[in-house]
Amino acid sequence: MPEDKIISHAKVGIIGGGIMGVSLLYHLAKEGWKDLVLIEKGELTSGSTWHAAGQCPQMMGSYNLAKIHLHSTNLYRELEKETGQSTGWHGCGSLRIAYKQEDLDWFKYVKGILDNVGAPAEIISTNEIKKVHPFIKLDEILGAFYTPEDGHTDPTSTTNAMAKGARNHGAKIYRKNRVTDIKLLSSGEWKLITEKGDIVCEHVVNAAGSYGPEVGQMVGLKNIPSINMIHHYLVTDEHPTIRKLKKELPVVRDPMASAYLRQEGKGLLIGPYEKNTKCWALNGMDWKFDMELLEPELDRIEEHLNIGMDRIPEFKDVGIKKIICGPITHTPDDNFLAGPAPGLKNFWMFCGASIGIAQGGGAGKYMAQW
Ligand SMILES: Cc1cc2nc3c(=O)[nH]c(=O)nc-3n(C[C@H](O)[C@H](O)[C@H](O)COP(=O)(O)OP(=O)(O)OC[C@H]3O[C@@H](n4cnc5c(N)ncnc54)[C@H](O)[C@@H]3O)c2cc1C
After folding, report:
1. Is the CB of 355 under 6 A from ligand 1?
2. Does ligand 1 have an atom closer than 6 angstroms to the CB of 14?
3. Which residue numbers delimit the FAD dependent oxidoreductase domain (predicted)?
4. Ligand 1 neighbourhood includes 211 CB (under 6 angstroms)
5. Cβ-Cβ contacts under 8 Å for 52 (sequence gap 6 or more)
6. Tens of pLDDT, residues 119-162
């Protein structure tokens, strides 16, 4: 889409066109805010968002996060009706496996939260697991937490659908335009210095993902608590049995493998959270990093892959089609950073998301209502 000449003034300037920034833009526009602008140094989603696996679980042990996740899934399911742009939503549901009585006790607590926020959830027996997922080997399993209405989405299509919704309400998006510096004016407004011109904004939002600390430094914020860690997932070739399925399998979260396992097209997908995880770009981000993946390190995740593939043996029948490896931002408590930056008026944080696809939709809504 052609972009107009850059505007000189805005009520809100959002830095970063990943799912977090675009969701905030969309929700501010829906709340009736005018003069909104989003600046992206590459293309929309070209940071971490484009390569995410897209899982959006509703199972959250925190009341507020459960509301955020529920809004995301409801939005991604319905957004096409509003915007005409498909989000790639798959409402296949999810299962989280229990191996211990403590897991089942925790499930009861989480079910109370989901009942409260209105997200359908059941604690199901091993027999019932077999009915919704015929391929899981049941040995050692005591039951599962089943959320029938969550699933996974296409992160790029979903972000673009929100961008379309925001533009329909008058918001402006400037791509291929890096914010190179930010100045505080005597009026109390912020001047965004961008490659294509300056924009004076009443509010500025740091939604720069992996670059959150670099953008923070532009306004004197040192030590923003967000680092990048490397994460992999693997997609298999088509599987003859999966090809014949009439209904998509639910996403499985297996704490023994420390992995998510799901259907992807007519094949399978597995993504482990490894024990020996690795940080990335600790000395700062290179501004040139855009639409890039990292070199896979399969030896670090092999143990998890083996356990996961034993749990769903169909994985062993087919070859690996692609391996995705990229950076995810993490904060000390693994919650995204949201809200006013300390000591600065009208400068807001909205970055550090480790499951930004699942949280972006809802986080954007509640941030817009702050
Ligand atoms: C392999 C992998 C799988 C994943 N799977 C899932 C999943 O299944 N579910 C899930 O919920 N999450 C998943 N994630 C995590 C998810 O991708 C991130 O949490 C999410 O994309 C973060 O979104 P964001 O908008 O904060 O950051 P980003 O998508 O990185 O967006 C930030 C944007 O800011 C731009 N930017 C930065 N600085 C500037 C500047 N100075 N000027 C202009 N623009 C700037 C960048 O170019 C970038 O596009 C996965 C991540 C990886 C790596």
Report:
1. yes
2. no
3. 12-370
4. yes
5. 155, 326, 356, 357
6. 999 999 999 999 999 999 999 999 999 999 999 999 999 999 99
Q: How far is the CA of 47 from the centre of ligand 1 (A)?
A: 5
Q: Is the CB of 19 under 6 A from ligand 1?
A: yes
The residue nearest atom 20 of ligand 1, judged by CA position, is 356
pLDDT for 5 equals: 83
Q: Considering only CA atoms, which residue is closest to atom 25 of ligand 1?
A: 18
* Ligand 1 pocket, residue 143 CB under 6 Å: no
Atom 35 in ligand 1: which residue has the minimum CA distance?
A: 16
Ligand 1 lined by 213 (C-beta under 6 Å): no
Q: What is the pLDDT of residues 267-280, one digit of tens each?
A: 999 999 998 899 99
Q: Angle 42-192-28 (CA atoms, 0-180°, nearest 5)?
A: 75
CA–CA gap between residue 301 and residue 296 (Å, rounded): 10
Task: Compute the distance from residue 60 Cα to the ligand 1 centre, in Å.
Answer: 21
How confident is the model over 214-264, as pLDDT tens digits?
999 999 999 999 999 999 999 999 999 999 999 999 999 999 999 999 999
Q: Which residues contact 61 (CB under 8 A, 6 or more apart)?
A: 106, 109, 110, 113
Tokens at 122, concatenated: 């059941």
Query: Mind listing the domains of the chain with CATH numbers?
Result: 9-50+156-226+334-368 (3.50.50.60), 91-149+227-328 (3.30.9.10)
| Mean residue pLDDT across the chain | 97
Higher pLDDT pick, 349 / 1: 349
Instruction: Quote the CA–CA distance of 47 and 294 in Å, as a whole number.
Output: 12
- 264 alpha carbon – ligand 1 mean position (Å): 21
Distance 313 CA to ligand 1 centre (A): 32
pLDDT 10s digits, 121-133: 999 999 999 999 9
Exposure string of 16-47, with b = 16+ CB inside 10 Å and e = fewer, is bbbbbbbbbbbbbbbeebeebbbbbbbebbbb
